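Have a close read of the entry that follows and walk me through the local backbone shapes. See right below:
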Amino acid sequence: MKFSDYVQYDGLGLAQLVQRKEVHASELLSVALERAHQVNPKLNAIIIPMYEQAQQRSTQALTGAFAGVPFLVKDFFQEYQGVHTSQGGNALKKIHYIPECNAEIVNRWEKTGIVTFGRTNIPEYGIKAITEPTAWGACHNPWNLKHNSGGSSGGSASAVAAGLVPMAGASDGGGSIRIPASYCGLFGLKPSRGRTPWGPNFNESMHGASMQHVLTKSVRDSAAMLDAVQGADRASLFRIETPQQKYLELIQQPPKKLRIAFNTQSPIGTKVSQDALDAVHQTVQLLESLGHIVIEERPQIDGLAMAKDFITVWFGQFAYTYAQIKQMSASITDDDFELDSLASAAFGAKISAADYIHTLNNWGTYSTQMNIFFEKYDLYLTPSTASVAPKNGEISTPAWQKAIVKSMLKIGKAHYLAQGKLVDKIVRDNLKWVPFTQLANITGLPAMSVPLYWNKQGLPLGSQFIAPFGHEDRLLQLAAQLEYAQPWMPQHKKIRI
């Protein structure tokens, strides 16, 4: 099989070829590896190869919905026993950390018959919306190599968009499936809290704000993979209701006439690009042409307050992560962490228990407000991101901020930066590129980015839809309808690398 043929198929399409014995899994892997050797030096999407394991697996008798399909996993929690993982950081890279068991999500992916041949690039410990780790270097966007692919699933998004694989593992704690999907012209679904597993080492991440799934070229691949992996495991804190019908079956049916609210204003009061406005307005027109009712309205939520409540838990989570990593080896020092990571850990370590509980109570209030909002509407539409993908190096901590952080870290007072009006500026500076995605994480609601817009420079920007809790079915049905009405896979033929 030639790459020109390989890239025309989604994951289910390739699996069907294998099932019909028109191609062998080892042949698909050879094409994927050849493509990786050709373009990965330009993309820096794959950082930890698993070529030998993949070649061995491709010769086995594989079964499942994606039997024989080349696959990549994110270098963050999606662990394989015996395979090095760095979580994007120099600390675990230096000690060559090797997990003792598979993550449960990996076990379920493996049961679908996928052939994993590498781990993909992420920002250090997944804490940024762009993939530019010091440990591995920046990941490049195949639509334009001067631009970033987004974070934290940036390497996976870059690999899928460039045709190395039809889909790849991803996770989303603040938008990290939807942001790279928006920047790379892919379909990205963040499931509801608890829909996919975190075991065996974790019950959930960030109180259910972070979820694992895949980035795909097609809606049906996402639906089929969610069918395969959804549901609690032994480590899960609660059991989400099982869907009454397979998602892959549901998307064969058109959605009902939907009542959809939309908004293009940044919840934190920052600038939204003309591209983002155009993307949503074009999506509104498409929705109306399909018979849906679309009304401009947004939830009654203080966006800046919500952003600060998100950042509080984010900092607290990373303070815990930082402490755990430091305990893994005496050789790990602060020099093995990026400055932004050290600052985040310092902020998080000084959050009081009372403040943290107050923040979580606020999270509950936002969930209540969204439940009330969804009494009137079936879905909520916004831009996925405030702009197309930034250039590599464009999003970096301002020099003035670095100088202050360095000096405050030296005297153990970095947490003072998270007080007063300065915290508002830090929130706005860090989230101005991606102010729309955190709402779904905080509330545990399912959300998706759908690739329906490309600007004059050929860069994509996704439209985000948020649904009531547990209604991935509603999202996937609409996504399939949009994909049929305005197919986006042909756009990928324009990628030249």
Remarks:
- The first helix runs from residue 3 to 6.
- The two ends are 19 Å apart (CA to CA).
- The mean pLDDT is 95.
